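Task: complex structure prediction.
Instruction: return structure tokens for all chains below.
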Amino acid sequence: MADTASLQLSAVEIRDLREIAGTMIPADAALGVPGADDPAILADAVKSVGCDLALIREALAAISVKSDGVFADMDRDAREALIDAYCKMGGPAAAALGRLVASAYYRDDRVLIALGLEARAPFPKGHELEQGDWSLLDTVRKRAPFWRDDRAAAKE
Amino acid sequence: MADNEKVDVLIVGSGASGAAVAWSLADTRMRILCLEQGDWVKSTEFPSNGRDWEARRYTDFDISPNRRGRDTDYPVNDDNSPMKVANFNGVGGGTLIYTAHWPRMHPSDFRVRSLDGVADDWPVDYWTLEPFYEENDRMMGASGLAGDPGVPPRRPPMPPIPLGKTGTRYAQAMNRLGWHWWPSDTTVATTAYEGRAACINIGHCTPGCAQGAKASVDITYWPLALRAGVELRTRCRVREITTDAHGMAAGAIYYDADGRECFQPAEMVILACNGVGTPRLLLNSASGRFPDGLANSSGLVGRNLMLHPWPIVSGYVDQPLDGGRGPITCMWSKEFYETDRSRDFVRGYTLQFGRGTGPANQAIIGAAAGHLPWGRAHHRVFRELLDHRVNIGVACEDLPEEHNRVTVDPVLKDSHGIPAPRVDYALSVNTRRMMEHGIARAEEILTEAGATRLHCSRTALNSPGHLLGTARMGNDPERSVVNAWGRCHDVRNLFIVDGSIWVTSGGVNPTSTIQALALYIAAEIKQRLATLFD
Ligand SMILES: Cc1cc2nc3c(=O)[nH]c(=O)nc-3n(C[C@H](O)[C@H](O)[C@H](O)COP(=O)(O)OP(=O)(O)OC[C@H]3O[C@@H](n4cnc5c(N)ncnc54)[C@H](O)[C@@H]3O)c2cc1C
Ligand code: SF4
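Output:
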């Protein structure tokens, strides 16, 4: 039988993810936005791990090693510096961590509304797109054709 | 093994080319069957229906079959390639998740040997294909604006996508530089068209258009082909094409939706599995008579793979634009398309101008480029980036090189145990020079548009899903796999209509040309029916 526990993050891993996510995107009272460690956003992230589970585990483990297992006890500057250094190294695990946190954070109603966006799926309402300034094309229209005509080249 | 009733025409693959050829051949009243390994995808399944629309482009609508990992996908070993394979396996193939950019090849693209002294000329020319381009534009529903001095005349049936704020900003910069630009042709319906609703600017066109405004062949060609009597069987994965005692194609062995091994006999077989799927199938069809793979006496099946290296240069302007609120394609420039002897490379590229993206993707790409910090500074910088993004793709022509190839992986297999394809690909010196030239021009344009924080993503992230050249056309059986009308030199009732038959790649998105070629081959088949296998 499949070991279902191994198919999702453990309680310890979720706790670590909360600390890391809250460091990556902290709450900001002035802007009126929660942090990525907000319970609803974190729960959304946890349930969205999916096929990136191994990569997320790898990222959590790497950050834990880099912080000697005391990430949560470090001061904010040190935590930010550590995350920054880890993400700058690049690689699939760091990318997966960024993707997970950003995807859950930037679909939260409070976050979208604070950004001046509508908290909804794009379909069915769509958006308005203005035509823009078509008169800009006038100068291009005056240009002579400049694609190579192979028939003309063949005659030469 | 279950045996089916014989059909006249068996098509493998229901993507861009398979759909076009099925529709065109339907008026012959022959019995036509298409086997497709994937499913129909309903418009309600597309990501833009839900609040997780941005995340799903990295899961079940990822452009990489390896990440997507649906049971209808097959894995591809592309470890030894800086460019990764992008595709979609379902009714509509790649058109389900394409971006609907709709340029044609230029006349010069078919004459590269004669005009530029490289690679080979095609056995067909632009003017032979022109009526099929026109027919395909009507069938797919193309939008655009006539009068572009950078390309041969054409008549898109619908008006172009609005420029919007983003396009206007690019256009001002291009005019100051004195460089060509034009609104892109696309297959986004800008007005109601043949039962399709007009675009409502969902802004997330690539992973499927929930509005049905983007022309994928499941909503253009297929409904008409089915109505005309073509049969389409989904979740049928073809393992191999078999041959008879005369070396003619006898039919296909496939696994049906229940995993049963079946044999489908046919008078003729048409492959439309794309530039990776078709060579895989031909190589997997090796037999005593065809030990190196079917139709491979030239040794060229799988070789000359072309993928269109596609650097993307991005930046951020000070004015809010319309990213994520309109089709992502916007306009093109042909300024650097044709060969210019004063440059240090031959051939050329299209510049493709894009709109920005939604908030989650903005955070992901901003962080990946090193522009968006994590931590307390995140919110401030994010607000400077969101909706301020401009980006230009450099669509480079890569020339055919035999060492760039698709083979069958000795280890990797799909869920039916069929050997998976392996891709080996390297960038040539000519391509690298072309890329750097294009990147420098794109940086000039973005700087002129007032953008800062410039960043170039060179190849790995930008694989455009253009899979070309692995069963090339030609008149010489020693130097090509199919003849000038798509028939395999070695097997006279086996045809190929997908991107594998390309001789060179041009510097444009390929699908309008893939389909024009498929319609042309279908027309040739219809004209030659009495002597087709002679
Ligand atoms: C993300 C992305 C964006 C793109 N954007 C553009 C764009 O803007 N403009 C443009 O022109 N092009 C674009 N393309 C490319 C476009 O999708 C392809 O050029 C086009 O779909 C190729 O057509 P085809 O007929 O060669 O193959 P496909 O459309 O790939 O169809 C092949 C079909 O064959 C099926 N198949 C394969 N093997 C088997 C088998 N053994 N048994 C049964 N079925 C099989 C597959 O499931 C698939 O459905 C894009 C592609 C991607 C992935
Ligand atoms: S922008 Fe238009 S084409 Fe693109 S997804 Fe939206 S409605 Fe469809």
